[in-house]
């Protein structure tokens, strides 16, 4: 059976495009997609032209998912040809989860990688209808105002009775079974299914992978599953410290330190100071932790002495001949267990001779060094002990637990309430510290000393704080959970088979009976473990809902967990906000897209996502200050939440009214209904905090249909609060007054409502409040004004001809305006390419010919074009990010100037263009009468529809090569429409009456036939017209005989900077070679020339790249074309190839050769060094006359050019190794530098785009606001402000190559 997405029409199918770029790692970027979406991978400019292979572990249809099983995706070629421009490989996403991709080319296996996360589809009810993620309302206990229940773990609990300290992960807690009953997991599954089908509610539960209860039977039988002193000997020093502190607890409780100022009841700072003294004077000196990291100096020196006496040499395969003493940490962490790497010692300490004295001297040097190293270790341990004693460790814990007002006030120290929580289990009878330390040599005992779990404030969540390299336990930085043992998985199941198998069964039970999981302690759970377990869970429950609460402090770090684990929602807690501003920020950040957001195309780039938020008022970890009396309020809010999400209220606006009041608007972009909730927060106790009495009025645009709900938290006489030991009973003295679905007039919180007009059909209601006390909320249902609602519906009706996404909320109009009677595509079909030039393009100077100009956005800049492309280039940057704060959007909201400009410039023209302008004007008539905040998105929708229709009409007027070509070819072809238009004041002269049968154009001013590009090629501007072949013959003959003249009208009118000599032309063919030679050093003789302009730098009138060639005098020559051709073939490589061979007979100036394997830029220049400059001109000759070149030499020269001249968009005009190279062109610079002033280096390094068809040109073309390719760039493809932004030559040469290919 075909998938849902495969049956969708192409324009409805949601397609996201992920552009792949070389060396781009996106593992910390979250990409969220929905089931049914198509994901396309396309090549960015850095990868085009390479044989890229894309790998993914997303499974083939019908195959199980295996995280380590990657397959190669096949490329699709839409044009039927292997063109990198449009080729893509794709995934049809039908399975929820986290999937990885990577790509490479050639010998590079992985050049970039990333993850995609496919959201699950949740279903409830007997009809299995979909529950959207945004509809979820969750509660940790059962209540019918929710659609998801979060069960804390239902397994057998440990002795602490914490829901998250499980004694047995596989058994159902027997305490849930009444006497005489014995419920099991099947009973739980039946209940969960009943809740789903009958109550439309889903059930999720926690999975706890990071620890198990200390009294778990299985952890005692399999101590290898925890971190003990056998499998983790680096914890031995921390265990010694832990036992010493426990014994200190006993002595303090017995009053032994009372004389030192440390009583059992620690109540003030002096007691804490006494504790610090006891730690430093009694505890630390007794346990000597530094000895675990030191060397036994005497035995090490003796071993070294023996080696020296034997004449032992160091193993240089290990030392590499480098000096430096290496110390080997004892893997068992015994006292003085560290050893010396004797090879490094022998390499470092070398005696002057083998005499006993010299050997003894050398041993003395080693002893001194070892003593220094031992002292360093002593200092390091001293620092660790300082941290352990610090305010946030031992002493800090005591302050919180015994002194702080917000702490538990544990009272005197005793065994039940020790100084600090123990870090390790100790399953043996009491004994002295000395006896306990002797157990370190008994592995059968130390394997049972297991490290407790906990969390480390500010730690790296990707680091396992119990692994080697971490000193968390030694420095007492762990906030310890003394009821739970941290589990040690290792890197793979083989490292701890029992633990992986046990937790796999636990996962399978959970996934079999629940719809989702909450990953407890997710930020401390090893990622590879969570990945494995969730893969197991998704095999049983493909649409598994995964939620987690992360405490990483960074969205980027959150993304690592979200992408690798496929987390569906991250918990965000309202009570974590410190004030209303932070609360509003959380809503704005995670609530949805902004009100008035742009309509996005179905096919669009895949943009980074924000992790979906499950926004809770309070999590189960924290106690809600008010519980009783507010269930009715929760019920109303949850119903509203579900309704808004189900009906598409996906847009959000947050208004911080004042310090305590926040207004949140939820908006539906298709019906344009809104719900505005005004909340007066109560972050401070009203009994102790003075709240303001003046509540500012609210201005709500539109028509208020009803008050959905209003609620106030009020105090009542219900006695003082008494905590219930069995139940969360809340503060009974508070309750909620609530009204639902009432007219505005019946509101208790609204004092007065008035209607004001803000513009055409945009009405605003001013609301004055009363009794909006702290802890109050009122929610209004708001519609557009009826007239505006009808007009936006009509606008959507006419837009639906372009996309069915506008059908919802559309309203057909009985009497359509004449301008809208015909579809826009029909109007566009009558346009010519010249008309389309006006519609789409025309720069400022072109538009000024008609008395207009491009539109200038106040406070920003002038659009590049007067036509649609000018706006589309700007909107293309605004739309994907919904940048509604852009000056263009502000201009649209403020007035109709731009709207009128777009239509009026077309209406003022005759014919089909005027009809298109009238169509736009008619659409804009509706647009002008909707609320201003909606105008940017609908203006964009109208323009996108018009623009895409115009592009379709343009392509239909072009050749099959363009119509069937890639998107790159079509973009290039648009350059012809961009560059070719009808001007009011053309520069071309009238067409000669002597020329017949050639194309022409009629002057709109005089009505006469005028020359155009084709007629120029067919005839001549001279008065004595000749056929083209005669012109060619005469030109060649004249050059062969020699020409010498001064240009007509020579002087400043032609070139204001050229000297008189520069206008003199002298050229002749050298009879010995057949090459044309001539010119002088003041000529600008080729395209690669720049006339100097700076008087200050004294380069005025001097060409930067002169082409003056020594002119050989000769007599009148008669030669056939074939003879001339043979002569050129014979002479070319001998004259131009720079071989680098010593004494090459063809090389006249070997002293000037600085690059070999190249072709000279010229031959016989008056300045001989110019011949040897490496420039890209020879590549043009290769294209025009490849027969002149030897293939082997040509490839070698091209390789040199690629290495030295190739840039991102074209070819450098000069070798970077050349002494006059400068890659930055600045025509405004005027200084004393001869080579740079006034842009003298125009062809001395900047990159010429016309020289190369580069893959990067595609990106440059698509990203250009001009939709063209520039004349040149500065070095390394950097933008050059003095370059022509879009050049016909640049576009045409690229298009020509693609056509030839």
Automatic annotation (TrEMBL):
Residues 629-906 form the Glycogen debranching enzyme central domain. GO terms for biological process: glycogen catabolic process. Pfam families: GDE_C, hDGE_amylase, hGDE_central, hGDE_N. It comes from the Eukaryota. Residues 39-124 form the Eukaryotic glycogen debranching enzyme N-terminal domain. Residues 139-545 form the Glycogen debranching enzyme glucanotransferase domain. InterPro entries: 6-hairpin_glycosidase_sf, AGL/Gdb1, AGL_central, AGL_euk_N, AGL_glucanoTrfase, GDE_C, GH. Residues 1027-1108, 1119-1247, 1255-1296 form the Glycogen debranching enzyme C-terminal domain. One of its GO terms (molecular function) is 4-alpha-glucanotransferase activity. This is Glycogen debranching enzyme. It comes from Collichthys lucidus.
